[in-house]
């Protein structure tokens, strides 16, 4: 049995051999051991399974009496679960660690207390290996957190799913099962709420069919139609074949090209020649031949703890300046800035110079698409990306009012809107409810637009299930794996 603090119930001394009668129960690190398996029988007897010993108080039932294991118990020595997850003796006193509260120390003895359903006396059963197979416990470290289990993968396109579940305790919220194919997550089963102190079974006898590339087959008519619809005003690629030639000969060459495409889909490989393209950079501003437009970014950083560290950093800047002069790669002074990342109220501020000019000090800077602030707070970045994503979503709503195909609208959302919300999320993933809600609100509005659903017609969860999408908080967790 596992305490809410993460440690499990042990017998004092380890129970490597049969414990003495009256041996105390304690809290200790380490779980999922056969010698520590407890079972609550239908009669209410709490049994140490390996040695057939029962659990009961070692003295009169009062506050603070220790609990131990005995060779026999009376029919009245019964235990039961409260609705929140406390283990209650004779429906009067509850089990808890004597010291340490919610996070007890190792070897903290277990005692009875008249107060129940407090964090320090919440327990839950963990299934361990037995003659019936192997079991694994999944649980969050803290309330409202998420826990996940990644199962072994399979190469079969059709598979059945069978598993047992045990959802009991105060912090039980929801169990969801997803099947991942490529980068997509497909929800296949879910169950919410505490299900009582008994195990259930999920048996999805119908094969889970996931559409993979190997299941997609093109035909010659589709290829010929696509070739005929090519834009002849576009330039040809590295192969030098004009698009007009492909259009004029679409019927004749479609079978051969179709066979190539199908072979690529079935093998999951793309010929290297197909990965080549003529790329023309789009000029943004200033003179096209200016080297400053194409130079790489350079960063110099150091942990500053004293004035000596400031001098070391200035020396590094001076050395970098000399190197740039020697190699005719002068720095663009207008783009060189100083950003001090700290949460100190009075940080050590030093004036740095390059080319005999003082470097501009800023409180935030955009680096590779991510806005980094001086206090390492991501509010500014999240405000920027959500504003940009909302503007793009508004543009789609205004320019595509007659677009009825939800698949196309979903594709537009994924490519133009959600891509902005998920870029580099491993760096800036929000931790506060306010910021999480701000990011999620964009997808809430987007799913309503994709399905053209009116307010109150479908819940957010129903819209996600309909579109085979995950909440953005789950997407960020998956990208962290």
Would you kindly provide a written description of the structure presented here, covering whatever features stand out?
- Residues 130-197 form the MAM domain.
- This protein has 481 residues and is α+β, with helices and mostly antiparallel strands.
- It has 5 domains: 2-124, Trefoil (Acidic Fibroblast Growth Factor, subunit A) (Trefoil), CATH 2.80.10; 134-210, no CATH class; 215-271, no CATH class; 290-362, no CATH class; 378-480, no CATH class.
- The protein has 10 helices and 22 strands.
- Strands 2, 3, 4, 5, 6, 7, 8, 9, 10 and 11 form a 10-stranded antiparallel beta sheet that branches.
- A hairpin with a 4-residue loop joins strand 5 and strand 6 (53-57).
- Helix 1 (220-228) packs across helix 3 (250-267), helix 6 (406-422) runs antiparallel to helix 8 and helix 8 (433-451) crosses helix 9.
- Residues 128-134 and 205-211 have low confidence and may be disordered.
């Amino acid at each position: 049995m596992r305490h809410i603090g993460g440690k499990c119930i042990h017998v004092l001394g380890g129970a490597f051999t049969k414990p003495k009668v009256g041996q105390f129960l304690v809290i200790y690190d380490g779980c999922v051991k056969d010698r520590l398996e407890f079972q609550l029988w239908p009669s209410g007897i709490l049994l140490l399974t390996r040695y057939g010993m029962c659990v009961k108080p070692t003295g009169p039932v009062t506050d603070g009496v220790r609990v131990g294991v005995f060779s026999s118990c009376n029919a009245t020595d019964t235990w039961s679960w409260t609705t929140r997850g406390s283990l209650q003796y004779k429906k009067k006193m509850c089990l808890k660690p004597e010291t340490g509260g919610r996070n007890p120390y190792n070897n903290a003895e277990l005692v009875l207390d008249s107060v129940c359903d407090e964090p320090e006396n919440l327990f839950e059963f963990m299934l361990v290996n037995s003659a019936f197979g192997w079991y694994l416990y999944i649980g969050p470290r803290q309330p409202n957190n998420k826990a996940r289990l990644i199962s072994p993968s399979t190469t079969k396109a059709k598979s059945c799913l069978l598993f047992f579940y045990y959802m009991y305790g105060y912090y039980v919220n929801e169990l969801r099962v997803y099947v991942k194919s490529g980068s997509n997550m497909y929800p296949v089963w879910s169950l919410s709420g505490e299900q009582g102190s008994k195990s259930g079974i999920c048996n999805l006898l119908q094969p889970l069919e996931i559409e993979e590339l190997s299941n997609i087959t093109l035909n010659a008519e589709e290829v010929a139609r696509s070739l005929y619809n090519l834009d002849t005003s576009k330039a040809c690629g590295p192969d030098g074949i004009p698009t007009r030639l492909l259009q004029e000969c679409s019927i004749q060459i479609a079978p051969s090209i179709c066979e190539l495409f199908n072979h690529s889909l079935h093998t999951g490989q793309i010929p290297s020649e197909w990965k080549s393209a003529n790329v023309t950079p789009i000029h943004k501003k200033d003179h096209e031949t200016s080297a400053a437009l194409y130079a790489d970014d350079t960063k110099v950083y150091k942990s500053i703890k004293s004035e000596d560290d400031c001098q070391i950093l200035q020396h590094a800047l001076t050395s970098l300046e000399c190197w740039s002069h020697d190699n005719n790669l002068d720095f663009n002074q207008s783009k060189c800035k100083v950003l001090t990342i700290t949460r100190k109220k009075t940080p050590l501020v030093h004036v740095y110079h390059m080319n005999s000019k003082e470097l501009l000090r800023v409180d935030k800077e955009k680096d590779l698409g991510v806005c980094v602030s001086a206090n390492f707070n991501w509010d500014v970045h999240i405000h920027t990306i959500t504003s940009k994503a909302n503007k793009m979503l508004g543009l789609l709503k205004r320019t595509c009012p007659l677009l009825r195909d939800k698949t196309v609208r979903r594709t537009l959302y994924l490519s133009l809107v959600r891509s902005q919300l998920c870029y580099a999320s491993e760096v800036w993933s929000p931790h506060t409810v306010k910021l999480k809600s701000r990011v999620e609100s964009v997808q809430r509005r987007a799913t309503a637009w994709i399905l053209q659903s009116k307010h109150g017609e479908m819940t957010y969860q129903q819209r996600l299930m309909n579109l085979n999408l995950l909440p953005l908080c789950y997407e960020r967790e998956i990208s962290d794996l």
